[in-house]
TrEMBL record:
All residue ranges annotated as the DNA-binding transcriptional repressor CapW winged helix-turn-helix domain in the record: 13-88
Protein name: DNA-binding transcriptional repressor CapW winged helix-turn-helix domain-containing protein
Pfam families membership: WHD_BrxR
Keyword annotations of the record: Plasmid
Amino acid sequence: MLSQKELQELIIYRFIDAYVDLYGELNVHVITKQFHIHRATASAILTKYKKEKPSNLTYDLSKKRYVKGFTFEKIFLGKESSFSYLNAVELLYSVEKK
């Protein structure tokens, strides 16, 4: 059984797969904003993600973000719909605006 930390990391790994699949790029700010976590935590999770398949993301210095690699594949999300996953994450992690 996964610990709470491992489960959160898996959710974020799948989020990275889905977000990059749909938008073609990602930076740490996107993760911190969506999941309400510290920048250092998001950066560490992104570093672990990149170790799984380094060719999935390439850092673009001029854009200051990671861009989708030519051989990108969803390693954590598999065949699940990226759009559906992002919608589910938005429902679970969104903050009510008052």
